[in-house]
Amino acid sequence: MFLSTLTSDSEFPPVSSEMSCPYSLACVSSEGDSCEFGSQKYFVLCGFGGILSCGTTHTAVVPLDLVKCRMQVNPDKYKSIGNGFSVTVREDGVRGLAKGWAPTFIGYSMQGLCKFGFYEVFKIFYSDLLGEENTYLWRTSLYLAASASAEFFADIALAPMEAVKVRIQTQPGYANTLRECVPKMYGEEGLWAFYKGVVPLWMRQIPYTMMKFACFERTVEMLYKYVVPKPRSECSKAEQLVVTFVAGYIAGVFCAIVSHPADSVVSVLNKEKGSTAVQVLKKLGPKGVWKGLVARIIMIGTLTALQWFIYDSVKVYFRLPRPPPPEMPESLKKKLGLTE
């Protein structure tokens, strides 16, 4: 089970003031926190926050995602976002815009559990390997490595439901529900039908998640340093959540751009039987892989902002430790001659 593996106290002991802290003094739990940073309860609730943030937001934008997927696999019929919505409503009715909501909710809830839960685990694990000073100096690389490691496992959890979702959304008449689609896909192609898209998913989601987490972490750091007129410690919880939302939206725009070509490949691959990622890439060409980018920027920008907002709100609600932006350790300041 993910949560029991994720939260083994023997492998990931709580971080306390007596231990070397990977984020300088930021990691020491305050009196108002409900648990210690890096404790079993902390990881469990972070995983729960990931379920809420990813499952609910992806389900909320199913209509836009459906139109985006159809633009990618059939650009001659679905020429733009507006045209895609009108054609879909004309052919399937308003209810047709909700096609694929069930596999979307299940798949992205599982992905969110692994994405956010494992990110917290790997961030602490890699930080302990680097030590306090190197964690600060190489913090961007730390965010990239931790998020990539987490997404590797998250995509394995997502792949089956993503395949079902795309098949329902892009093949009108194939199946209308999750219960109808799963046995049909399994009967035609076996278990491979649900995992043939996992490599393109890694191609799409790992760069996306690396950008999502690293850009978010560094944007938050810059906002508090250059934009917010007072230290984070003096900001109210509501003000901190506004900063979280803004940083999340900025990160989301970059996420959409770096991962869009692979997203186009995944959409076409899950629609067509017997195709490979290389074949689809050749078929789409340099221009075809960028079809639907505007829709995806709108969707992913909003999605990423809401995900970070919900995730941070869960931490606030359950009073989890929320370390402020990292500061240079005193030992490093002394080595660099920055203190008297």
Describe the structure.
It is a single chain. With 340 residues, this protein is mainly alpha-helical. The chain has a domain at 207-320. Helix content is 71%, strand content 1%. The chain is elongated. Residues 1-28 have low confidence and may be disordered.
Uncertain regions spanning at least 5 consecutive residues: 1-28
Instruction: Figure out the total of helices.
Output: 14
Round the Cα radius of gyration to an integer and report it: 21 Å
Distance between the ends: 51 Å
Strand content: under 5%
Class of secondary structure makeup: mainly alpha
Number of DSSP strands? 1
Question: How is the biggest beta sheet arranged?
Answer: none
Give the overall pLDDT as a whole number. 85
Outline of this structure?
Keywords: Membrane, Mitochondrion, Mitochondrion inner membrane, Repeat, Transit peptide, Transmembrane, Transmembrane helix, Transport. The protein has 340 residues and is mainly alpha-helical. The protein contains 14 helices and one strand, in the order αβααααααααααααα.
SSE inventory with pairings:
Layout: H1 2-6, E1 22-25, H2 40-60, H3 62-73, H4 81-92, H5 101-130, H6 132-137, H7 139-170, H8 178-189, H9 192-195, H10 198-227, H11 237-271, H12 277-288, H13 293-317, H14 330-335
Helix pairs in contact: 2-5, 2-13, 3-4, 3-11, 3-13, 5-7, 7-8, 7-10, 10-11, 11-12, 11-13
Question: Main attributes?
Answer:
single chain; 14 helices; disordered N terminus; mainly alpha; elongated; 340 residues
